[in-house]
UniProtKB/TrEMBL annotation:
Pfam families attached to this UniProt entry: NHL, zf-B_box, zf-C3HC4
A GO molecular-function descriptor: zinc ion binding
Domain RING-type: 11-65
Keywords noted in UniProt: Metal-binding, Repeat, Zinc, Zinc-finger
Name of the protein in its database record: Uncharacterized protein
Spans of repeat NHL: 382-423
Organism ancestry: Eukaryota, Metazoa, Echinodermata, Eleutherozoa, Asterozoa
InterPro entries to which the protein is assigned, alphabetical: 6-blade_b-propeller_TolB-like, NHL_repeat, TRIM45/56/19-like, Znf_B-box, Znf_C2H2_type, Znf_C3HC4_RING-type, Znf_RING, Znf_RING/FYVE/PHD
C-alpha cells in the first residue's frame, strides 16, 4: 500500500498504527488509549460549558487544537471503523506478502500447526486445505468469498472490495444482517430489530441501508463544492496578502526614495526629520509584514483543517462500506456543515497601501510631508459625449482593457468597436454589421458579440479572422439565441452568455468550437471571471441580482442583491474582479449609477462611485490601479489615489 495511505493510519500521539481509533469533531482520529492519556495531561484545559451548568469535559486535539466535548468520556466517541478496516486490510496484505518467511497457520481447525492456503474474506480466517473444503460445505457459509494466498498476494482478489462487500451482522440477533438504519436512533439495525426495539409501534422510523447510504452520500457530497470553493478563496486570500506585502515593500522603498529626494532640497534643515520619517516607514513596514504573516498563518491553518476534513469525507464517501460510512456520517456531516458556515476573514487592503506625499511648505520648520496609509478611488479622466462622430458614443455598452494599455469600447447604436487611449485619443474603429453588445480580448485579438447568432474574432487591424456559432452545427438557424456577454478564461477558453436560453457556452480559442453548454439561474447579461478560483460572476440586469457560480460543480456559491438608499436596485450591470474583491455597477435609471465594492465572498465593502449616467460595463486596467466604466455616452476612468 502507498506510503501516503499508510501515514493516514498512524496515530499522531503514539506514531504507531491506530488501535481502536476514535473520531474527534475535527475529523482527526487518535487511539482511544492515547486520547485518555492526552485527556489526563491536558485536563487543565477542560472547561465547563457554562459557569452555572454542569461541567462538560472537553479534549483539545493535539493536531489542530480544536476542542471536542466528551459528555460520556473518550469511550463515548465514535470508533472510526473505516480506519480499522483499512488497518486490517494492510495487516492481512503484509502477512500474505511475508508468508514465505513466516508460515501462516489455519485459524479454524484445532490443530494449529496446519499451514494456511487460503482466507475466508467474510470470516477473516486463514484456512488450511482441509478446513477450506469443510468451510464451503455448510449452507450458511456457501456465499462466503474464499481467496487463495497467492490470489491475495498478486492482487487477483481486491481485498478492499471484498471487505466492502461483506454484510455485517447484528450483535443482538445472531445471523441477521444489518440491513436498515433507524433514523430515530441513528443506529444500524437488522430485520428482527425492526420488529422489537426499533419497531414502528415504538414510534421509530427506519429505512433500508441502501436508501440511507444513497441519501446521506448525496447530502454529504453537496457540501463538497462550497468547501472546495472556500479552500480556493483562502488560497487566493493568502496569495493576495503576499502580493500586497510585495507591493508594500516596493512602495515603501519608493517612499524612502521620495523622502530622500525631498530631503536633498532642504538638506540643511532636514537631516533629523529625514531619519525620523525613514524609521517610521521601516516601523510600519515591519509591523504590517508581521500582520501579513500572522494573517497567512491563520488562514493556512483554517485551510488545512478544511482540506483535512474534506479529504477525510471524500475518502469515506468513495471507499468506505455502507456501514462504515453511516456509522461516521453524523460526525463528519456535523463538521463539514460547521466548516461551511465559516467565513474567510479578508485582509484589510489598506495594509498594503503606503505612499509618500511631499509637502511644499518651507516656513522655517522641518516638514518633508506625511505618510499616506490608505487609498481612495477618484475620477481620473473621462471622455466622450453623445453622438456618432469621433470621440462620441451612443450606448457604450461593452468595454475591454487591451494588453497595450488601450481600451476597446462596444459602441452599440453606432455599430462599431472603438479602440482608444485612456485619454480618449482615437486609435482605431472597427465597423460591425450589427449592434455590438460586448467585447473581450485574448492574445492580441478582439472577440465581439452582437445581435447576430455568431461570435466574431478580429485582429487589431480590423481583419475578421473567423466567426463561430454558440450552438452545435445541426442547430444553427434552428435554435434561438440572444448573446449578451463574453469573457475569456486565463487559458483562452471563450465563455459566452446567452440570455434567451439562460446558458453559458464555452468555446476553444483556436476556432470557436463548442466545448460545453452550462445552464445558469440568472440570465447572463454581464459576465466576469475570477481567475484565482475559476468562478464566474453572472450579473442579471433587470433581474437585480449577481450570482457567483462554480461552473464545474454546477452550483451557485452566493448571490448579491445590491441596495441603494435601503432599496433593492433596479439593474445590476457590469462586473469585474479585483485583487481585493468584486466591483459591481448598478443603477435605478438616468444619473443614478453606483459602483459597489465587495470582498471575494460577497461582503459589502463600500461604494466607490455614484451619480453615474447609465453605467453599463466595467473593467480593471493599468495594473489594477484604474477602473474603466462604459457609461452610455462616455467612458470614465477612476484611479486609486492616496487620501
Amino acid at each position: 500500500m502507498e506510503n501516503g495511505k499508510k501515514s493516514q493510519l498512524e496515530c499522531a500521539l503514539c506514531c504507531g498504527r491506530f488501535h481502536q481509533p476514535k473520531l474527534l469533531d475535527c475529523l482527526h482520529s487518535l487511539c482511544a488509549d492515547c486520547l485518555k492519556k492526552h485527556k489526563t495531561s491536558s485536563s487543565p484545559r477542560l472547561k465547563p460549558a457554562s459557569s452555572q451548568a454542569q461541567q462538560v469535559p472537553r479534549i483539545v486535539c493535539p493536531v489542530c487544537r480544536q476542542e471536542t466535548e466528551l459528555p460520556t468520556g473518550v469511550d463515548g466517541l465514535k470508533t472510526n471503523v473505516y480506519l480499522i478496516g483499512l488497518i486490517d486490510e494492510i495487516v492481512m496484505q503484509e502477512q500474505v506478502a511475508h508468508c514465505g518467511d513466516t508460515k501462516l497457520t489455519c485459524g479454524s481447525c484445532e490443530d494449529t500447526g496446519n499451514t494456511a492456503v487460503s482466507r475466508c474474506m467474510d470470516c477473516a480466517l486463514y484456512l488450511c486445505a482441509g478446513c477450506e473444503k469443510v468451510h464451503t460445505r455448510f449452507a450458511a457459509l456457501s456465499s462466503h468469498t474464499i481467496a487463495t494466498l497467492d490470489e491475495i498476494k498478486h492482487g487477483v482478489v481486491e481485498v478492499s472490495k471484498a471487505r466492502l462487500d461483506i454484510a455485517p451482522k447484528c450483535r443482538r440477533h445472531y445471523g441477521e444482517t444489518l440491513a436498515f438504519l433507524c433514523e430515530t436512533c441513528q443506529e444500524l439495525i437488522c430485520h428482527d430489530c425492526t420488529l422489537v426495539d426499533h419497531s414502528q409501534a415504538r414510534k421509530h422510523t427506519f429505512v433500508d441501508i441502501n436508501t440511507a447510504f444513497a441519501d446521506r452520500k448525496q447530502s454529504l457530497g453537496e457540501l463538497f463544492p462550497a468547501l472546495h470553493y472556500t479552500v480556493l478563496v483562502m488560497e487566493e486570500s493568502v496569495e493576495n496578502a503576499s502580493e500586497m506585502n510585495a507591493g508594500l515593500l516596493a512602495s515603501s522603498e519608493e517612499a524612502v526614495k521620495d523622502i530622500n529626494r525631498r530631503a536633498a532640497e532642504m538638506r540643511a534643515m532636514v537631516t533629523a526629520e529625514e531619519t525620523r520619517m525613514i524609521e517610521n516607514v521601516q516601523r510600519i513596514k515591519t509591523d504590517r509584514a508581521a500582520k501579513f504573516q500572522e494573517y497567512a498563518s491563520k488562514v493556512n491553518e483554517k485551510k488545512e483543517r478544511i482540506q483535512h476534513s474534506l479529504t477525510t469525507a471524500r475518502n469515506l464517501s468513495s471507499t468506505a462500506s455502507k456501514t462504515d460510512f453511516l456509522s461516521l456520517h453524523s460526525t463528519i456531516s456535523k463538521e463539514l456543515k460547521q466548516l461551511s458556515n465559516q467565513k474567510t476573514q479578508k485582509i484589510d487592503p489598506r495594509l498594503g497601501f503606503l505612499r509618500f506625499a511631499g509637502s511644499n511648505e518651507i516656513d522655517g520648520r522641518v516638514n518633508l510631508g506625511n505618510l499616506v496609509m490608505e487609498g481612495k478611488w477618484e475620477i481620473y479622466r473621462q471622455f466622450g459625449k453623445e453622438g456618432n462622430g469621433e470621440g462620441e458614443f451612443s450606448c457604450a455598452r461593452g468595454i475591454a482593457a487591451l494588453p497595450s494599455g488601450d481600451i476597446a469600447v462596444a459602441d452599440q447604436w453606432n455599430k462599431r468597436v472603438v479602440i482608444c487611449c485612456t485619454d480618449g485619443t482615437l486609435k482605431q474603429t472597427i465597423p460591425t454589421e450589427d449592434y455590438p453588445f460586448d467585447v473581450a480580448t485574448f492574445n492580441h485579438q478582439l472577440i465581439v458579440i452582437d445581435t447576430t447568432n455568431y461570435v466574431k474574432v478580429f485582429s487589431t487591424d480590423k481583419t475578421l479572422l473567423f466567426d463561430f456559432p454558440t450552438v452545435p452545427a445541426a442547430e444553427v438557424g434552428k435554435t434561438r439565441v440572444n448573446l449578451a456577454s463574453i469573457v475569456v478564461k486565463r487559458d483562452g477558453t471563450i465563455v459566452v452568455g446567452d440570455i434567451y436560453r439562460k446558458v453559458l457556452t464555452e468555446h476553444r480559442p483556436a476556432d470557436g468550437s463548442l466545448i460545453r453548454t452550462v445552464p445558469v439561474n440568472t440570465p447572463p447579461h454581464y459576465l466576469a471571471i475570477d481567475n484565482a478560483t475559476g468562478r464566474l460572476l453572472v450579473s442579471g440586469a433587470d433581474g437585480r441580482v449577481l450570482d457567483a457560480v462554480d461552473v464545474d460543480a454546477g452550483v451557485t456559491l452566493f448571490s448579491l442583491k445590491p441596495r441603494m438608499a435601503n432599496e433593492r436596485v433596479e439593474y445590476c450591470t457590469g462586473v469585474c474582479c479585483y485583487s481585493s474583491g468584486i466591483f459591481l455597477a448598478m443603477h435605478n435609471g438616468s444619473d443614478t449609477g453606483h459602483i459597489h465594492h465587495y470582498d471575494a465572498q460577497g461582503k459589502f465593502r463600500g461604494c466607490i462611485a455614484r451619480d453615474l449616467h447609465y453605467p453599463m460595463n466595467i473593467k480593471v486596467c493599468a495594473g489594477q490601479q484604474q477602473l474603466a466604466v462604459a457609461d452610455w455616452t462616455s467612458v470614465k476612468i477612476f484611479q486609486l489615489e492616496h487620501i
